[in-house]
């Protein structure tokens, strides 16, 4: 049976609506959305009577929050191994491998990164949005690299605010097909859902959203180039769509990186290596943010995974140009 939480409204608290008073008294342990859901389900009671959001709470009132019965996560099996880069009582930072979905969704009811984390950390349940417990940002299934998740409501609010403000420092490494004429650039093109294929994002759309991406060359490797990419916004598939839009599709990208008939790759060894990649060669290498507790800047990094590094090693015989 889930445990309940009992609370006496402090004597210095003003009389006000239940949802407002509880949001202040329970800040850091229960998010506003979690409290609203408990009230809606009749699981918040004062002196034994269920309250409404508009119910006025007064100093000295005894409030009981009955824990919601949460169905256990689906059995976790067969997910790719991932490593934990950092963990404390507020956040957990992981190095996500390709092939691992971040949270449940259409076509993926379980066996996600979120499922694996909450299975060992039940305190993450009810942190954030239902079914996306602890999630404040995401990486595509086949994009690897650094991710942060929240373990408390306070951390969730802080991290979410930083991502909304675009103040999080993010650096990606992208192995792209092509050789740009410049050593750096900035792409500012609005993107949105493709008008005919809803699973694709496109620069041609009826509902465009502002998006901007900076990039610079790290290494030129013949028909391939390793880029450092810094997204200024965080739209779905933004980096993949933006790079493809300037003729530099991410190598291995099955959606936005189709091989062109002209100007393709002739080296049979390189072609064979790219066929073994089985995903877009995009890696979230650096993530920097303010820690939710002390507001100090912290930064986490992850080296290129073996599958992308193997292709670089194969091509190091080509001329290298410093970024």
Tell me what you see in this structure:
The chain is 20% helix and 26% strand. It is α+β, with helices and mostly antiparallel strands and 323 residues long. It has 3 domains: 5-65, RNA-binding S4 domain (Structural Genomics Hypothetical 15.5 Kd Protein In mrcA-pckA Intergenic Region, Chain A, Roll); 83-164, Pseudouridine synthase; 169-315, Pseudouridine synthase (2-Layer Sandwich). Strands 7, 8, 9, 10, 11, 14, 15, 16 and 17 form a 9-stranded mixed sheet that branches. A hairpin with a 2-residue loop joins β3 and β4 (49-50). It starts with a strand and ends in an 8-residue tail after the last helix. The model is unreliable at 70-75 and 317-323 (pLDDT under 50).
Count of the domains:
3
Give, in order, the helices and strands. Answer: EEHHEEEEEEHEHEEEEEEHHEEH
Poorly predicted segments:
70-75, 317-323
Quick one: how many beta strands? 17
CATH level 1 name of the largest domain: Alpha Beta
Question: Averaging pLDDT over every residue, what do you get?
Answer: 86
Number of helices: 7
Q: Give the helix level as a range of percent.
A: 10-25%
CATH superfamily (homologous) name of the largest domain: Pseudouridine synthase
Rg, nearest Å: 23 Å
The main sheet comes to:
9 strands, mixed
Cα distance, first to last residue? 59 Å
Q: Proportion of β residues? A: 25-35%
From the helix content, strand content and strand pairing, which structural class follows?
alpha+beta
CATH topology of the largest domain: Pseudouridine synthase
Specify the overall morphology.
Answer: elongated
User: Which CATH-level-2 architecture of the largest domain?
Assistant: 2-Layer Sandwich
């Amino acid at each position: 049976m889930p445990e309940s939480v009992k609370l006496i409204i402090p004597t210095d608290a003003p009389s006000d609506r239940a949802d407002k008073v509880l949001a202040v008294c329970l800040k850091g342990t229960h998010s506003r959305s979690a409290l609203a859901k408990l009230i809606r389900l009749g699981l918040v009671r004062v002196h034994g009577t269920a309250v409404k959001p508009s119910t006025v709470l007064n100093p000295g009132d005894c409030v009981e929050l009955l824990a919601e019965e949460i169905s256990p996560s689906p059995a976790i099996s067969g997910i790719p191994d991932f490593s934990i880069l950092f963990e404390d009582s507020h956040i957990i930072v992981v190095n996500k491998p390709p092939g691992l979905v971040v949270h449940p969704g259409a076509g993926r009811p379980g066996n996600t990164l979120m499922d694996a984390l909450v299975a060992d950390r039940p305190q993450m349940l009810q942190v954030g949005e239902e079914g996306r417990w602890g999630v404040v940002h995401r990486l595509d299934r086949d994009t690897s690299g650094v991710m942060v998740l929240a373990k408390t409501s306070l951390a969730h609010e802080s991290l979410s605010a930083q991502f909304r403000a675009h103040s999080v420092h993010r650096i990606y490494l992208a192995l792209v097909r092509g050789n740009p004429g410049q050593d750096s650039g900035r792409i500012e093109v609005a993107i949105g859902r493709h008008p005919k294929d809803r699973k694709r994002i496109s620069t041609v759309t009826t509902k465009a959203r502002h998006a901007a991406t900076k990039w610079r060359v790290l290494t030129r490797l013949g028909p391939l180039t390793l880029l450092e990419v810094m997204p200024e916004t965080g739209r779905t598939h933004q980096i993949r769509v933006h790079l493809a839009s300037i003729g530099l599709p991410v190598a291995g990208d099955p959606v936005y990186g189709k091989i062109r008939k002209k100007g393709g790759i002739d080296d049979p060894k390189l072609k064979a290596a790219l066929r073994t990649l089985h995903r877009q060669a995009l890696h979230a290498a650096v993530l920097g943010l303010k820690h939710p507790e002390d507001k100090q800047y912290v930064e986490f990094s992850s080296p290129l995974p073996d599958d992308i590094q193997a292709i670089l090693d194969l091509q190091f015989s080509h001329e290298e140009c410093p970024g």
